[in-house]
Design a protein that fits this description.
The protein is of the alpha/beta class. It contains 10 helices and 10 strands. The protein binds adenosine-5'-triphosphate.
Length: about 260
């Protein structure tokens, strides 16, 4: 008996995305299996954030998917009601925003926002949420849990805020984690540590991760597959080893050439 391959967790089919009628993504096809790490690489303005915001249903009032389908667990997200879509955000799909602090309410503490994020989907006490946050903060090398939980978003540095954002998205153990430049504000050591934690998350929980990044070097270390976007079009897409070793597109070659190398003398 022949068995057909499992349906991907996420499948983007022939998608076109416009802001106020102006197309920024065209004819885009991508899929992500359970437990896969996919990096979406490209220069500023190539449409990386637009694509993951479309998956999350967070394009804003001007942005629309005008063509195609986005399947998550075999359901077309684009035909779901706004309420059903809202329920998928958090427990099914988590998002780490490029600027995490600005995605939070500025006048409420991190602890209060953590508690609410979990309470909206699960019956849980404040102490239990703090326990979960403490374990995740430790993994992210964030010291002084109570101080962070008592802080307001503006009181955290960029690097702390990014790690708090990753921990917050991991709290509900989503099947799919979408991350927008998750390590851009981190120094080299913390960047390596956060990258390791993302890998561990995939290994331990089978989480699928879509990582948007400018950094094809980081994509090469972390991901199974790489998609390269240039001006809203997919110019290269495949297994990380083939994209890095044998890129077919000039733009991908340029991105790879731009990665600094450490030369041992
Ligand atoms: N809300 C919006 N309204 C109108 N145009 C937008 C909006 N958001 C993004 N764009 C445009 O869509 C295009 C893609 O932007 P997007 O932010 O997705 O690119 P990106 O690859 O993520 O860039 P970066 O790496 O700088 O974040 C750009 O031309 C941008 O100006």
């Amino acid at each position: 008996m022949s068995s057909s391959p499992p349906f991907p967790l996420l499948e983007i089919r022939n998608v076109k995305i416009c802001y106020s009628g102006i197309p920024v993504i065209s004819d885009l096809n991508l899929s992500v299996r359970t437990g896969e790490i996919l990096s979406i690489v490209g220069e500023s303005g190539s449409g990386k954030s637009t694509l993951i915001n479309a998956v999350m249903g967070l394009l804003g009032s001007e942005g629309h998917v005008t063509k195609g389908e986005i399947f998550f667990k075999e359901t077309n997200l684009l035909s779901m009601t706004p309420e059903a879509r809202r329920r998928t955000r958090g427990p099914e799909m988590g998002m780490v925003f490029q600027n995490h602090a600005s995605s939070l309410c500025p006048i409420r503490t991190i602890g209060a926002q953590y508690y609410e994020a979990v309470k909206a989907h699960r019956k849980i006490s404040r102490d239990e949420v703090e326990g979960l946050a403490a374990a995740l903060f430790e993994r992210m090398n964030l010291k002084n849990v109570s101080r962070i939980l008592a802080s307001y978003p503006f009181e955290l540095s960029g690097g702390m805020s990014q790690r708090v954002g990753i921990a917050m998205a991991m709290l509900l153990e989503p099947a799919l984690l979408l991350t927008d430049e998750p390590t851009s504000a981190l120094d080299v050591i913390v960047k390596a540590m956060v990258s390791n934690e993302l890998k561990k998350l995939r290994k331990e929980k089978g989480t699928s991760i879509v990582m948007v990044t400018h950094d094809i070097g980081l994509a090469a270390i972390l991901s199974d597959n790489i998609a390269v976007l240039n001006q809203g079009r997919l110019v290269e897409y495949g297994a990380t080893s083939s994209v890095i070793i044998d890129p077919q597109d000039d733009y991908t070659r340029e991105l790879i050439r731009a990665v600094p190398r450490i030369v041992k003398r």
